[in-house]
Amino acid sequence: MPIKASELILNPDGSVYHLNLLPEHLATTIITVGDPDRVGSVTKHFDSVDFTTHKREFHTQTGTYKGKKITVISTGIGTDNIDIVFNELDALVNIDLEKREIKSKLTSLDIIRIGTSGSIQKDIPIDSFLISEYAAGFDSLLHFYDSEHVQYFKISEALKAQTNWFVKKSDPYVVKCSDRLLKKLSSGETVIGFTATNVGFYGPQGRILRLAIQDNELNDKLANFNYEGKTITNLEMETAGIYGISNLLGHNSLSMNAIIANRATGEFSDDPKGIVDTLIKYTLDKIVD
Ligand code: R1P
């Protein structure tokens, strides 16, 4: 049965609905960034850029870096956008868009996020590079899918117990990166961490401007969490969704974080753009290594 027009929505030119891409526009190695302007910060290092498009917050460029074809795409902020981007990237390689049928031979993409993040551990300073080995999702995205087989329940149960999790917020889930990509992209220059992905930037991450929050101690509790030596290291807004959906779809993903803030010490990087640029160059060179 072909997938209905209301479920797999295509634009008049046959491209996928939100990303505006056709299958030939995509490489099998993909870098995601949050900020649409960061796409150019990655591709300025390329030998050539052969394709560019954008729609809403989803800007895409495909080109080659040291001879390797790579696509760079912005996701905007949050795991709700990750649902859209990752399902449409998968459709581009694993669904025959003309026949509207799932292909018999599936393709696994390598998808690497290059993003910014705040550390919650004093000993992970600003300007470090952190790779998320595990991620805890405080959003609800993964629970809308048949996803129990990709979740680490012992860790999420310990997390809820040790933080006295307020159940009205969500039911946290824990997921893991691609071990192959972790090995390929880590080095003495990177810290391996456990990232908490939250649904907002202010209250959900414990920032108080004018609004009181439900639990003033949450970041401290997260920093003190310990499950068999695993501790939560940093906060951002996409990684758990990326790992969860990638693992469900059979893709390999890894999240590279430039630590631009330290929430435990109150510091913020003097040069956030510079540290992101250095992480971009590091990541590109590791991809082609
Ligand atoms: C918040 O300022 C945004 O920055 C972080 C968070 O995950 C969130 O998307 O990542 P990016 O720099 O990749 O957007």
From TrEMBL:
Recorded GO CC terms: cytosol
Record Pfam families: PNP_UDP_1
GO molecular function, one term: purine-nucleoside phosphorylase activity
SUPFAM superfamilies: Purine and uridine phosphorylases (SSF53167)
Matches recorded under CDD domains: UP_TbUP-like (cd00436)
Catalytic activity: uridine + phosphate = alpha-D-ribose 1-phosphate + uracil
Nucleoside phosphorylase domain residues: 29-266
EC identifiers of the protein: 2.4.2.3
GO biological process, one term: purine nucleoside catabolic process
The protein's name: Uridine phosphorylase
Organism (species): Psychroserpens burtonensis
